[in-house]
Amino acid sequence: MNETSVKQPRHKHEFSPLRVLAGVLVGVTVLAYLIGPRPIPRERANRVICMANLHALYVALNLYAGEYGNAYPPPEKWCDLLVNRFAREESFQCREAMGQRCAYAMNPRADRLSAPDVVLLLESIGGWNQFGGSELLTTERHKGGCNVLFVGGEVKFVKAEEIPALRWESRDNGRDEEK
After folding, report:
1. Those residues with Cβ within 8 angstroms of residue 51's Cβ, 6 or more apart along the chain or in another chain
2. Domain extent listing, the chain
3. Could you tell me if 91 and 53 are in contact, meaning their C-beta atoms sit under 8 angstroms apart?
4. 58 in helix, strand or coil?
5. Which pTM does this prediction carry?
6. Could you read off the pLDDT of 35-75 as tens digits, one per residue?
7. Taking Cα atoms as reference points, which of 166, 170, 179 lies closest to residue 109?
């Protein structure tokens, strides 16, 4: 009698190393998509870049003060005295204020002795060596508010409804606070 070899049927659900690897890769890809970082909207990214510029200007102002009697530059020359030596010209620009050489203004009533929550630099309508107070502040670039640098070094996005509460002068210096 002729013995016929009996082949065992192959199971359709065998897990080969290649199938396991493919399954793991698909799973990791889906998981990375679900929990991975989301792209930052352009508007928010520009706000963050603007905040970084203000921080760079804070560093520049303090480097200047370290070399010039612990005082900030005179407000009417602040950009001229910082550019190139203490700060790059790009630091004076906000991406949302295209075409403006400087998108910030200096508060002339702020100095190194002011309280840390006094406004030092603010987003302004624009202009090189611009200085002034709340009348120059603009909220047109970033939806719902603007970026502000304080004497203490904090850079904060200030919502439009919080703007009236900003401090422009310090009572610590024996000066009255502007409202």
Report:
1. 147, 155, 157
2. 42-173
3. yes
4. helix
5. 0.72
6. 766 655 777 788 888 999 999 999 999 999 999 999 999 99
7. 170
